[in-house]
Write a structure and sequence with these properties.
Layout (H helix, E strand, L loop, with lengths): L14 E3 L2 E3 L5 E5 L6 E6 L3 H17 L7 H17 L1 H11 L4 H20 L7 E4 L5 E9 L2 E5 L5 H14 L3 E5 L7 H12 L6 E3 L4 H10 L3 E7 L2 H13 L5 E4 L5 E4 L6 H13 L11 E5 H17 L18 H16 L3 E4 L16 E4 L6 H4 L6 E7 L2 H8 L4 E2 L1 E5 L3 H10 L4 E4 L15 E2 L2 E2 L4 H6 L2 E9 L3
Parallel strand pairs: 7-8, 7-10, 8-9, 10-11, 12-13, 12-18, 13-16, 15-16, 18-19
Antiparallel strand pairs: 1-2, 3-4, 5-6, 6-22, 11-21, 14-15, 17-20
Helix pairs in contact: 1-7, 2-4, 2-6, 3-4, 4-5, 9-10
The chain binds nicotinamide-adenine-dinucleotide.
The site of nicotinamide-adenine-dinucleotide (NAD) has 32 residues, from α7 and α8.
Keywords: Oxidoreductase
GO molecular function, one term: aldehyde dehydrogenase [NAD(P)+] activity
Organism: Caballeronia telluris
Length: 492
């Protein structure tokens, strides 16, 4: 599937609570298509009373539906069926995802939907693999830990990959036996509703997977503060993450997983094999999803002797990108999520240029053939660690370039004072690459590649202000469990 007619897509709105659509006469938020700015639907804003209803419903389902108590293998079977239904629904889910987000429909069909299904399957397989352990005690005692779900997980997701980001939260939470109340971004609220419908169809008991709609200030805040929420898992900006952490501390010292922003460096040494491949990797890591990726490799740090050659190749790749709507065949540069976000990108680039940066390409809006906000892939050189575009997460297709002569200089440039989400090292010298892997302060370091594979085993998460805890991998499954310690005296 590589194109569709946006007028042909019908969306279901409202909240999804207890397996039913729920709406009320609450305040509403208009939802626009990023590709052309057309408002195509609205969602209600859940207030504290609606959050009570959703969380109480989830808690009751957690207690009474049998989800947490059933044989884990049975839970796994239901979740595998859920994954199968998601995969089989790609022809519905992909255009729904593309319509309201920045994901071109071809990518949503070939990657986002199957990846979401596979992630659910991956965590289904964990359901009966980790029950706790027997502890080495003396002969007269039996000590053990028992893994137990938290109850209701409050999950809050961003807009940049609506289905995938939500699945990273809900799949391990459900597999571990929890109920979930998910709040998607108010900009991309619809595709996860279809996910919740499919969960019920697969046999996940009603009330175990709920979706509430609304903004952050009203709905998100009420969700994380609710006393029955056992744990919060959040993906979004560093600023919101800090507010959520404070709210969790104030309302019950709730544990929290935070996947936050980044400003990830890409270190390229002159000996990096096949400079053309490196250029493709660097370009893809900043222009993919128009740079609206937490792991975007936004800071190129390159050995001086190859800097001009490499940036020329990247400019060439950027020039080949095709801006366009998410429903048009061949789009490789999708829109920016909203006009305010595009204006922010534009302003950061302008101020960085005004402070002395050289604009090698881009720096202007692109024509996507529709009234959405499109922004040309941009390269800024002659920048320093203090330049705004080097310091701030731009969340757009903007690459800064800094040069170095020694490995020590490269490492010093790679460290960001605040962020530590990911990094890339491109070099033929494995010793040097491994020294840098050790030295770079980041939650993920890729060597001679950049970006995830479809391998769910590898956890992801940030150092420093890029986050706390991990999504994906075994770690994300364990993070949805709490461990009860038991010690039995065998002599009585
Ligand atoms: P955002 O922080 O503005 O919003 C994220 C979610 O939080 C939305 O659902 C929003 O409604 C909600 N929210 C806002 N204020 C809230 C509050 N006070 N209490 C509770 N919820 C609140 O982020 P965004 O603009 O949607 O997403 C972009 C950001 O997400 C970028 O910084 C990006 O780096 C980050 N991100 C990180 C990862 C990762 O894995 N580390 C992945 C994707 C995106």
């Amino acid at each position: 599937m590589d194109s569709f007619d946006p007028a042909s897509i019908v969306v279901r709105g409202g909240h999804f609570i207890g397996g039913e659509y729920v709406d009320d006469d609450a305040a509403r938020i208009d939802v626009a298509r990023p590709s052309d700015g057309v408002v195509y639907a609205s969602v209600p804003v859940a207030d504290a009373a609606m959050i009570d209803r959703a969380v109480d419903n989830a808690f009751a389902a957690y207690r009474t539906s049998g989800w947490a108590r059933m044989a884990p293998r049975e839970r796994a079977r239901i979740l595998r069926r859920f994954a199968d239904l998601v995969a089989a629904d790609a022809a519905t889910l992909a255009p729904l995802e593309a319509l309201g987000s920045t994901r071109p429909v071809g990518d949503a069909f070939a990657w986002d939907v199957p990846y979401t299904a596979e992630g659910i399957r991956f965590y289904a397989e964990f359901a009966d693999k980790l029950g706790g352990e027997v502890i080495a005690t003396d002969h007269d005692h039996l000590g053990m830990t028992i893994a137990e779900p938290y109850g209701v997980i409050g999950a809050i997701a961003p807009w940049n990959f609506p289905l995938v980001m939500a699945s990273w939260k809900i799949a391990p939470a459900l597999a571990a036996g929890n109920a979930v109340v998910l709040k998607p971004s108010e900009m991309t609220p619809f595709s996860v509703l279809r996910l919740a419908e499919l969960a019920v169809e697969a046999g996940v008991p009603k009330g175990i997977f709920n979706v509430v709609q609304g903004d952050g200030r009203t709905t998100g805040d009420a969700l994380v503060r609710h006393p029955r929420i056992g744990k919060v898992t959040f993906t979004g900006s560093t600023r919101t993450g800090a507010a959520i952490m404070a709210a969790c501390a104030e309302t019950g010292t709730k544990p929290v997983t935070l996947e936050l922003g980044g400003k990830s460096p890409q270190l390229v040494f002159a000996d990096a094999p096949r400079l053309d491949d490196v250029a493709r990797r660097i370009a893809g890591a900043i222009a993919g999803n128009a740079g609206q990726v937490c792991n975007a490799g936004s800071r190129l740090i390159v050995e001086r002797s190859v800097a001009d050659d490499l940036t020329a190749r990247i400019r060439h790749i950027f020039a080949e990108l095709k801006p366009g709507t998410t429903w048009t065949r061949g789009t490789t540069l999708p829109p920016i999520i909203s006009e305010p976000q595009a204006a922010r990108i534009e302003a950061i680039v302008k101020r960085t240029v005004a402070s002395g940066a050289h604009l090698q390409c881009g720096g202007a809006r692109a024509d996507g053939g529709a009234p959405g906000a499109f922004y040309s892939p941009t390269i800024l050189s002659n920048v320093t660690a203090q330049s705004e575009a080097v310091r701030e997460e731009v969340f757009g297709p903007v690459l800064t370039v800094q040069t170095f002569d020694t490995e020590e200089e490269a490492l010093a440039l790679a460290q960001h004072p605040d962020y530590g989400l990911a990094a890339g090292v491109h070099s033929a010298d494995i010793g040097r690459a491994l020294r840098l892997v050790r030295g770079i302060e980041a939650g993920t370091v890729w060597v001679n590649r950049y970006g995830r594979t479809s391998d769910f085993m590898i956890p992801t998460g940030g150092y420093k202000r890029s986050g706390i805890g991990k999504d994906l991998g075994r770690q994300a499954y364990e993070a949805n469990l709490r461990f009860k310690s038991v010690l039995i005296d065998l002599r009585s």
